[in-house]
Amino acid sequence: MAIPSLDTIHAARARIAGRLHFTPSLSSRTLATRSGVATLSLKCESLQKTGSFKVRGAFNAVSQLDDATRARGVVTVSAGNHAQALAWAAASLGVRCTVVMPAAASESKAAASAEYGATVIRHGTGAEAFVRARELAATEGYALVHPFDDITVIAGAATIGLEILEQVPDVEVVVVPIGGGGLLAGVAAAIRQARPAVVLIGVEPEGAAAMRRSLDAGHPVRLDTLDTIADGLAAPFAGDLTYPIIRDLVDDVVLVTDAEIATAMSLILSRAKLLAEAAGAAATAALLAGKVPQAAGKRAAAVLSGGNIDLERLKALLSS
After folding, report:
1. 82-112 burial, b if ≥16 CB within 10 A, otherwise e?
2. What's the rounded Cα separation, in Å, for the pair 252 and 271?
């Protein structure tokens, strides 16, 4: 199992320092009470540049490319948040960026990626978009910056774990959403090495449970279908790098329904005054739905991983 060391994670933190936000961890008594925990802190990556945690890994990855690779440019595949993050990171470092997005990806996220400077290609399903991105890397010489299965991307995400430990020094349970697993793998790598006693829980939607199914199968698996409102968590497979990290370092991975996610989005907005997209609300949803019994009566933190949601989509979800 290859995990970023604490030295590697601290080096990533030094690279992003002054370029990205040190996002707040904000407490909510109402959400804590409804979750049955002693305290609940929300790590607000929705307030990060580009509106999600993804920019940490993207910037860390692009900043380490050599000059020749930067001159050729970078490519990735993403339903939206990693696309925006890589577009911003590449533009800030003077690197050309191409993003391949599934045809059904959010129009607002595609538009934002283009506004950050990326060339946006809409192509097929999530799995087909991955194939297209790899083809472009091979034919055009672009560096593929994987949205989650890349050690530099994981190390960038791991900086969140360091910040949680500093902001919530008495934290006992940390809950993190899972798409392909880069965020959880990074947070787990940081926290498990720095504070081994903290309980780490991952959360997936029932309709996109690639990591849970991989853990049950004993190896990474690919999903044939995806069905969830949390497009940011709809990775079609568990990563070859992220799977063993999560298998070995994380205490459990639990599932939430789309209805539980929508309820959490509404409560986060009305009670904590924070806008969370569906993927960003998943960790809090698990706590509110009682899916994390390890957190009962404990000091908990949930990563609010992003806030990028189309306003019409938000209206529909909150009114459903």
Report:
1. bbbbbbbbbbbeebbbbbbbbeebbebbbeb
2. 28
Geometric angle at alpha carbon 47, from 158 and 39, rounded to 5°:
70
pTM for the whole structure: 0.95
Nearest to 234 by CA among 306, 181, 186, 307: 181
Return d(Cα 117, Cα 150) in angstroms, integer.
23
For the stretch 251-265, pLDDT in tens is: 999 999 999 999 999
Q: 25 an active-site residue?
A: no
Examine the residue annotation and report whether 54 is marked as an active-site residue of this protein: yes
Q: Answer yes or no: are the C-beta atoms of 20 and 59 closer than 8 Å.
A: yes
- Residues in contact with 302: Cβ distance below 8 Å, sequence separation at least 6, in sequence order: 40, 41, 42, 43, 174, 175, 176, 283, 284, 287
CA dihedral for 276, 280, 286, 292, sign (positive or negative): negative
The answer to whether 156 touches 56, Cβ cutoff 8 Å, is: yes
Catalytic site residue from 35, 92, 113, 305: 305
Quickly list H helices, 17-106: 29-35, 54-62, 67-72, 81-92
- Contact present, 149 and 155 (Cβ < 8 Å): no
Q: Which is catalytic among the residues 35, 41, 43, 54?
A: 54
Model confidence over 190-234: pLDDT tens digits?
A: 999 999 999 999 999 999 999 999 999 999 999 988 899 998 898
Joined together, the tokens standing for residue 310 give 């189309």
